[in-house]
């Protein structure tokens, strides 16, 4: 199963939803709280070119935020990405 990295903050409802969806899929995730580390926030901005959280990466692929993740799931494409 692919490694999933999710950049989050503690009080983000979309982060909670993304983590819940990934947990239902059985994905192993590495969570990075960008509010706790300015360096990690800069890393997220550099990698994703976005300021909002969550920012989700499956392997090296930038999936986007929760809406993007949910869209992949609705289209039936998320499982294949997680299994790659």
Automatic annotation (TrEMBL):
Keyword Cytoplasm part of the UniProt annotation: yes
Source organism: Pseudomonas segetis
PANTHER family xrefs: GLUTAREDOXIN 2 (PTHR45694), GLUTAREDOXIN-1-RELATED (PTHR45694:SF18)
One matching Pfam family: Glutaredoxin
Function: Has a glutathione-disulfide oxidoreductase activity in the presence of NADPH and glutathione reductase. Reduces low molecular weight disulfides and proteins.
Presence of the UniProt keyword Cytoplasm in the record: yes
Record protein name field: Glutaredoxin
Keyword entries, A-Z: Cytoplasm, Disulfide bond, Electron transport, Redox-active center, Transport
Gene Ontology BP terms: cell redox homeostasis; cellular response to oxidative stress
Cellular component aspect of the GO annotation: cytoplasm
Source organism, top-level taxon: Bacteria
One function term, GO molecular function aspect: glutathione disulfide oxidoreductase activity
